Amino acid sequence: MAETQNNSKVKVHEVTKLTPFSSNSTTAAPFTLPLTYFDTYWFKFPPVERLFLYQITELTSDSFNSAILPKLKHALSLTLLHYTPLAGHLMWPPDAAKPAIYYFPDDGVSLTLAESNSDFALLSGSGIRDAAEFNPLVPQLSISDDKAEVIAIQITYFPSQGFSIGVSYHHSLLDGKSCTMFIKSWAYFSKQIQSSDVHNANPSLAPELTPCFDRTVIKDPDGIDMVYVKHWMDFTGSSDTRSLKVLATAVDKEGSSDFVRKTFELSGEVIKKLRDKVNKINNEAGESRQLHLSTFVLTCAHAYVCQIIAKRVEANTTVKFAVGGDCRGRLDPPIPTNYFGNCIGSVIGEAKASDMIRDDGVAVVAEKLSEMIKVLKGDGVQGSEDKMVKTIAMLKEKGHVMLTAAGSNRFDDYGSDFGWGRPKKVEIVSVDRTGAISLVESKDGGGGVEIGVVLKKQQMEVFAPLFVNGLEDL
User: Fold this and answer.
1) C-alpha to C-alpha distance for 134 and 142, rounded to whole angstroms
2) Residue in 171, 302, 413, 432 annotated catalytic
3) What is the DSSP letter of 247?
4) Residue 432 catalytic?
5) Which helix (H) or strand (E) holds 372?
6) Sheet architecture: strand order including 48-55
7) Would you say the C-alpha torsion 412, 416, 421, 425 has a positive or negative sign?
8) Catalytic pick among 130, 220, 258, 417
9) pLDDT per residue over 12-60, tens digit each?
10) 355 is catalytic
11) Which of 38, 376, 33 is nearest to 229 (CA)?
12) How far is CA 96 from CA 32, 221, 229, 354, in A?
């Protein structure tokens, strides 16, 4: 593709298609991968965009194009040999009851090659940055009424600074754990290429990185997959109810030019202090219930309270919480940990803003989230029509505030080393349109977590000191 200009800071040099590697002239046979009820629940949600920034000082164009880019491309092709469904498309043929992933010979993943003159140090830092600066670094998925890409990738060169890898993926096939497994597999092959010649072989992956696409492990005797599809068709209400286009997001409608991004961090020590504080408040209130005060619960509780105050949410407003969790080990029987697809259970809870802005607001939210996690370990794991009814109702309702989190502090995103060192920074770019906070395990380990927050500038001016000062008072 001819060179095009995205904006003043990012120039697209090429958009190409990368197919699964084959050591001979044959290609993978066509196949269809059905969607489970975990997949059909998510298939209308907006794509997820993740960005990995790798710092290599004094990186030249020659060294990038000769030593780095070819290895990244070949490693990606090798990875697609094991993750072939990613090279396919989500489609919904007229004779099919529900959408599915279809792969045909010569299908491939869209790969964008770009160059940026943005300030790499600023982008890979934790300070306040314009949210819009990150959008040109992740590719846009091609999604039409009748066909949608599963994944798209962008590699961006920053002269004398490093490079980034941006990944956008459709929620119909991937959850966060699956995407992480794919990224780590790509990184594994990239490192292998640098230490040995794998150009004429079909190298294997470690068991934990070898994807399991067996859909029979997800039991669905009641046909919940089609129940979810029917509700989505009824909800869209368009002339083409079978359209594969995803839902618009809040910021899509509002515009995002005034939004800024900042990263906060909670160390393992601070998380322990938060846990002790919540337990103390709980005990003083005479509560005898055992709370599930995980890093996720405590981090979200503190961030959510600060968000409500920063956004100046009226006291009588209902605040909704959506909690998701990996259900691979929660299903009965458990399914393989390397199962590739969606396997996220979700629970929706709520509280009044007036309860959240009290002095013990963090403890109030932590208790709510804790009870939701307990449901996720029980009845909340299995699919049900009631769950979809509540989800659709929440999407239709107006006058409430929705708070949720993307990512996880258990994915070890900073372990994604392609052979040139660990990422300098990992961001979930798509939270700037969904309103979620992002969670990534701290790069230095120790049980800490990085929290990515995107807010309007004036809201961030309130949120940042609230978040930091609230921790200093522990």
Assistant:
1) 19
2) 171
3) P
4) no
5) helix 361-376
6) 4-5, 10-18, 109-116, 151-158, 162-169, 48-55, 425-428
7) negative
8) 417
9) 999 999 999 876 555 667 899 999 999 999 999 999 999 999 999 999 9
10) no
11) 38
12) 12, 19, 12, 48
